[in-house]
Design a protein that fits this description.
Elements (H helix, E strand, L loop, with lengths): L8 E3 L2 H9 L6 E3 L17 E3 L7 H14 L4 E3 L1 H7 L3 E5 L9 H9 L7 E5 L4 H15 L4 H18 L9 E8 L2 E3 L4 H7 L3 E2 L13 H7 L3 E4 L6 H11 L9 H4 L3 E4 L12 H12 L13 E3 L3 H4 L1
Parallel strand pairs: 1-2, 1-5, 5-6, 7-9, 7-10, 10-11
Antiparallel strand pairs: 3-4, 7-8, 11-12
């Protein structure tokens, strides 16, 4: 894959960093956001964003801090303009998807306005579906002058291979699935997640393909009574997600849910997989397929990408 040696890229969102890596341009990355951690070698790069809030605490405390900040600020993160102007990038990748996920586009534009003499090109990503992610990969490749056909077709072939197995699953064998993106207050997963659940051979109960993640009332979860519950809180790995599950398990209605009674509750690494609209959404699809239909599909993610909640029996 050929590319321009004059490329100097800064990525302000983890999914964009992974797209740059997919396109073979990791060596052209000058800096990253405080959340970019994959592929592992990017962790050595300078960090040019920071949260304006304390990211420690319970899910409710974090939610309250973020909500309060958004009433007074464009974004809950800041851009370190001193680092940007020092590095003089040719391209900055950011997003306009969600002001809670990363620095806002407006903040980046404001920071770049102070970056004279050069004006880097801002590439802003705003994917809501899997097709949007493919289009983003193509667009980033086009702007950066690299061909995307080979890496993109490898990803799409993996998706097709999974669908080929799941499409023959009878309607009656497709479990109803609740994907939880935040535990307190409750939020179901939207955007690309309902689509991935469908592709993986399940029926997504909440969230609409391509629409933002909806807030959820406990009563709605109880009324829907999902066969499978999958936790994928935004920004959390497995251990932190387990803490949220422990919180949910204290709710009086929790043990009445059929997913809890049949041991079909799972925690996932939402931070590395489901919450990042980049190449690893394909891994996310494979994780879902492995959880929902382990008799048909095994990819080997158990233990690192997801685990079953083993404590349910003790709680009942």
């Amino acid at each position: 894959m050929t590319h321009d040696d004059h490329l100097n890229i800064i990525s302000l969102i983890p999914s964009a960093t992974e797209i740059v890596a997919l396109l073979g341009l990791t060596d052209r990355l000058l800096a990253r956001s405080h959340e970019c951690d994959y592929p592992p070698q990017v962790q050595a790069l300078p960090i040019c964003t920071a949260p304006k809030f304390n990211p420690e605490g319970t899910s409710l405390e974090i939610h309250d801090r973020v909500t309060h900040l958004l009433q007074t600020a464009l974004s809950v993160y800041e851009v370190k303009t001193d680092i940007l102007s020092q590095l003089q990038p040719t391209h900055i990748l950011t997003q306009a998807q969600c002001e809670v996920c990363a620095v806002s586009l407006a903040d980046v534009e404001q920071a770049v306005a102070t970056l004279m003499p050069t004006q880097p090109q801002i590439i802003s990503l705003q994917p809501n579906t899997l097709a949007d992610v493919w289009a983003d990969i193509e667009r980033v490749g086009q702007v950066l002058g690299v061909t995307v056909e080979a890496p993109l077709s490898q990803l799409q072939q993996r998706v097709e291979a999974c669908i080929q197995v799941t499409q023959s699953i009878a309607e009656a064998d497709r479990p109803t699935v609740a994907c939880i993106e935040w535990a307190d207050p409750l939020m179901a997963a939207g955007n690309w997640i309902p689509e991935l659940v469908q592709m993986a051979g399940g029926k997504s109960l909440f969230g609409t393909i391509g629409q933002h993640s909806p807030w959820l009332q406990w009563e709605e979860l109880v009324a829907a009574n999902p066969e499978v519950i999958i936790l994928m809180p935004c920004g959390y790995g497995l251990d932190r997600t387990q803490q949220d599950l422990d919180h949910l398990a204290q709710q009086p209605q929790w043990k009445m849910l059929q997913a809890v009674q049949t041991g079909q509750v799972y925690i996932t690494d939402g931070n590395h997989y489901f919450n990042r609209p980049g190449p690893r959404l394909v891994d996310s699809l494979e994780i879902l397929a492995e959880i929902l239909h382990p008799d048909r599909l095994q990819y080997g993610y158990q233990g690192r990408g997801w685990r079953r909640d083993n404590w349910q029996i003790n709680r009942r």
